[in-house]
Structure formats: structure tokens, C-alpha cells
């Protein structure tokens, strides 16, 4: 049985508190919905960005959720360069295996040395990165370890922007040559911003939450349109397999920003 809204919010505010700063009720509910989506296999993973809570705090909160009636599967988490990723092992392994087998990954090279972005396919260094992270997930069997910690010597040459896009299941992800800097060539570039929202009904309240939000350069939309349609259809199929979340909604708009942080 799912706990009440007040109980859920209280648990998140207590376990994820940083100093005297507690999460707002809205952020607590958004986090809950995101984690349910990961648990249900609707979403591959969640990048925790609510506040500066430590991996240990997030782990304790995650462990409280089965008793609160929120999740039923054993979700896992890992820490890399002070970033926390929470994922569903079965969904994630299937996702990464598919990328490697079908090479079904589109990269958008936005290196600052370029005058304009360019669409590329999966290449060896990205494949090696995916194999490495998949190996870490599969080989980590020490149940006494609360968090898989990826050491700097392992990820030193990885492009974390690309990695996070892959793990979060975006239809295309950005890449840049980090040996030449961490900037990009997207300044004032028209970007198609796609968002996916769902609703969760609890205590006669329908809470709306954004599950996905990612951008693609508008000029590449035609080239990626078939990929987007396939991605949307796959998401719809995963969504149909559960009954907890409702009202799956897709939207997109065009934005142009003087600076884009990846």
C-alpha cells in the first residue's frame, strides 16, 4: 500500500536534507514519480540533481521506498565524478546491449572547434565506454557496498555528457572533443527541446511530472525524425506495461540560447 503524500514528503525531506535545507514538497513528489518510472522500466535511469545530498543519503532514501509502497524492484545506484545515477539493472543492461549489438546510437558532435554541429554514428571510443560501464554493472556483486563508485582513473577519458545521455536513454546524445576543451558550438543555435510528462494520482491529486527533457539542433530534426518516432513508440510500449502512471504526453518547442551547458 502506497503511503500518504505527507509521509512520502516527510521521508524525502528527512533523509535528503542538506544542512538546514529541505526539499520542497513538489521536488519530493517529482523525485518519487521519477523513481517509480525507473522501477517500472518506463525510464532507464535517473540522474539525481535535486540537491547536494550525498550518495549515502540517496541510498538510505532509496532503501526506504519499498516500505512506503513506491518501488518493488531492487534499484541500483552508482557515483561518478560527484554525480549519482539510479537505475533499473534489467532495463539498463537490455538498453546497453541493444546499443552495442545494433549500433543504434546517434551522436551529435558539438566540439567548440567546429563551426557547426554534425551528426555521427557510434564509434570505437564510445563503444568501449559503454562496454566498460556495462562491465561495472555486471561485475559489482558485493551486496554490502551501498554505492558503485567509479574511480577517476576509470572514467578519466570518458565524455560524461555523452555517457549520461546514453544511460538516460535519450534518442541522440551530444559529444565533444574534451581534449580540446569543454565548450560547444551551440550558442544561439535553434534547438528543438522535447519533453515527456506523466501524471501520478495519489490522494485524489494528479501530480504532473516531467520524465524526459532533451534537445536536438533543429537543423538535424529531419535526419533524426525516424529515430524520434521509433524512440517514442518504444516509450509508449514500455508505458503500456504498467498502470501506476497515466497521461503520457509529448511536446516540443524551439529555443535559442546565448550559452548552452551540457
Give the biggest beta sheet: 4 strands, mixed
DSSP strand count: 10
Question: What's the overall average pLDDT, rounded?
Answer: 92
The topology string of helices and strands comes to HHEHEEHEEHEHHEEEHE
Question: Which descriptors would you attach to this protein?
Answer:
3-stranded mixed beta sheet; alpha+beta; 4-stranded mixed beta sheet; 8 helices; 3 domains; 262 residues; 10 strands
Overview of the structural elements:
InterPro entries: DUF4504. Belongs to the UPF0739 family. This is UPF0739 protein C1orf74-like protein. Pfam families: DUF4504. It comes from Triplophysa rosa. The chain has about 260 residues and is α+β, with helices and mostly antiparallel strands. The chain folds into three domains: about 5-90, no CATH class; about 90-180, no CATH class; about 190-255, no CATH class. Helices cover about 35% and strands about 25% of the residues. It contains eight helices and ten strands. The chain has helices at about 5-15, 25-40, 55-65, 90-100, 125-140, 150-155, 160-165, 220-240; strands at about 45-50, 75-80, 85, 105-110, 120, 150, 170-175, 190-200, 205-215, 245-255. It has a four-stranded mixed beta sheet. α1 (about 5-15) packs across α2 and α4 (about 90-100) runs antiparallel to α5 (about 125-140). The N and C termini lie far apart (about 40 Å). The model has no long low-confidence stretch (mean pLDDT about 90).
Amino acid at each position: 500500500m502506497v503511503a500518504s503524500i505527507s509521509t512520502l514528503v516527510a521521508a524525502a525531506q528527512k533523509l535528503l536534507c542538506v544542512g538546514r535545507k529541505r526539499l520542497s514538497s513538489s521536488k519530493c513528489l517529482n523525485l518519487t514519480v521519477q523513481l517509480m518510472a525507473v522501477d517500472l522500466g518506463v525510464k532507464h535511469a535517473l540522474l539525481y540533481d535535486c540537491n547536494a545530498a550525498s550518495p549515502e543519503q540517496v541510498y538510505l532514501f532509496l532503501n526506504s521506498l519499498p516500505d512506503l509502497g513506491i518501488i518493488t524492484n531492487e534499484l541500483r545506484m552508482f557515483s561518478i565524478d560527484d554525480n549519482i545515477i539510479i537505475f533499473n539493472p534489467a532495463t539498463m543492461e537490455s538498453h546497453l546491449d541493444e546499443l552495442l549489438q545494433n549500433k543504434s546510437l546517434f551522436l551529435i558532435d558539438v566540439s567548440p572547434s567546429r563551426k557547426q554541429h554534425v551528426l555521427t554514428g557510434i564509434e570505437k571510443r564510445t563503444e568501449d565506454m559503454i562496454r566498460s560501464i556495462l562491465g561495472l554493472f555486471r561485475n559489482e556483486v558485493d551486496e554490502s557496498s551501498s554505492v558503485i563508485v567509479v574511480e577517476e582513473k576509470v572514467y578519466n577519458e570518458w565524455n560524461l555528457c555523452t555517457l549520461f545521455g546514453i544511460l538516460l536513454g535519450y534518442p541522440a546524445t551530444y559529444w565533444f572533443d574534451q581534449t580540446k576543451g569543454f565548450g560547444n558550438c551551440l550558442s544561439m543555435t535553434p534547438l528543438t527541446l522535447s519533453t515527456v510528462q506523466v501524471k501520478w494520482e495519489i490522494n485524489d491529486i494528479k501530480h504532473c511530472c516531467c520524465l524526459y527533457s532533451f534537445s536536438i539542433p533543429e537543423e538535424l530534426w529531419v535526419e533524426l525524425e525516424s529515430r524520434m518516432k521509433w524512440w517514442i513508440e518504444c516509450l509508449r510500449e514500455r508505458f503500456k506495461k504498467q498502470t501506476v502512471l497515466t497521461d503520457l504526453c509529448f511536446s516540443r518547442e524551439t529555443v535559442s540560447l546565448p550559452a548552452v551547458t551540457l
